[in-house]
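BUG: 3D viewer hangs when loading the predicted structure for this chain

Environment: internal workstation, default settings.
Expected: structure renders.
Actual: progress bar stalls at 90%.

Input used:
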Amino acid sequence: MEIHYRQILDITHDGINYLDSNEQTQKISFIECRKNWVALCNETDGINRTFEDSFCVGWRDWFSQPQYFEFFSEPKVKVIFPYSKNLFSIFRNDRKKIRNEFIKLQWKIIDCGHTTYDLG
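Structure tokens produced before the viewer hung:
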């Protein structure tokens, strides 16, 4: 599932509340994301991580087009940060605004005690 960053309603220690495409409130559970992250890592690299040792809830990629965070909920939720590359967006400084929103989400996740893996 893919959502626009503006669909995020709030972020708490438990997770992220957002509006889905039907304007219904949904939640990304950080506990579920951590469990799924640990399972994925243990499956792929053979290192025996535990839930208590990992605070990662997903990954992020600033260099992708569009930039995104992907959370390991079930189903996975990708939060995208799109912007258009045209003359008007240059004058409006859209890329800088998007970067600020991206960093703001990253810091809110960190403030809640969690991390995301940097793919960039």
